[in-house]
Amino acid sequence: MSIFPRKVHDGDHLVVDDRTGFTIWARDSVKEALTGYRVERGRDDPRHPQEFLRTRADKQAARDPRPPGVALTTGPLTTETTAAASAGATVIAVTSTVRMQDADVLLVGLTNGDFFRVAVLAINSLTSITLAAALPETMANGAQVVDVSALSAVEYG
């Protein structure tokens, strides 16, 4: 048996199937679009219809890009004393008690330069605070009082 096919047609020639290695007539072969192989008709691997799909344009830009608003008041609340207080005092006079609440933690500036950490027992008025513990040292007029618990919530506007 010969390796050449017997039916000869004018103008036709033999080619080798790139996938199987068999010898076939050129009229019975096709060229695959994806690989470029010359293969026998019916054994080709056509492209899948999903390969021709195109995606839509993805508009990722934000419509109105703005950063969130900055909180009006952030961080600890700082105020000053309006009157001097002696050692052992539990009530101090301050400029303002706005945003201060009971059980807030205060740092009270003393005359020796230290800060006394104490909790608020009660807010008496807009300018008076009762401390949970007595002052260990004297406090001057205009001393700094820092409420480290009076952090405000962030408000976006």
Report on this model:
The structure is a single chain. With 157 residues, the chain is mainly beta. Among the domains are: 14-47, no CATH class; 77-147, Thrombin, subunit H (Beta Barrel), CATH 2.40.10. Helices cover 0% and strands 26% of the residues. The protein has no helices and 10 strands. It has strands spanning 14-16, 23-25, 29-31, 38-40, 77-80, 91-93, 105-109, 115-123, 128-131, 144-147. The strands form 3 sheets. Strands 5-10-7-8-9-6 form a 6-stranded antiparallel sheet, with no helix packed on it. A two-stranded antiparallel ribbon has the order 1-2. Strands 3-4 form a two-stranded antiparallel sheet. It starts with 13 loop residues before the first strand and ends in a 10-residue tail after the last strand. 12% of the residues are buried.
Write the layout of secondary structure elements.
Elements: E1 14-16, E2 23-25, E3 29-31, E4 38-40, E5 77-80, E6 91-93, E7 105-109, E8 115-123, E9 128-131, E10 144-147
Antiparallel strand pairs: 1-2, 3-4, 5-10, 6-9, 7-8, 7-10, 8-9
Apparent shape: rod-shaped
CATH class of the domain at 77-147: Mainly Beta
What is the CA-CA span between the terminal residues? 90 Å
In the CATH hierarchy, the architecture of the domain at 77-147 is: Beta Barrel
pLDDT average, as an integer?
85
Strand order of the largest sheet: 5-10-7-8-9-6
Number of strands: 10
Structural class category: mainly beta
User: Do you know the CATH topology of the domain at 77-147?
Assistant: Thrombin, subunit H
Residue runs with pLDDT of under 50 for 5 or more positions? none
Q: Write down the secondary-structure element order.
A: EEEEEEEEEE
For this structure, the quaternary state is: single chain
Largest sheet: 6 strands, antiparallel
Beta-strand proportion: 25-35%
**Tally of contiguous helical segments:** 0
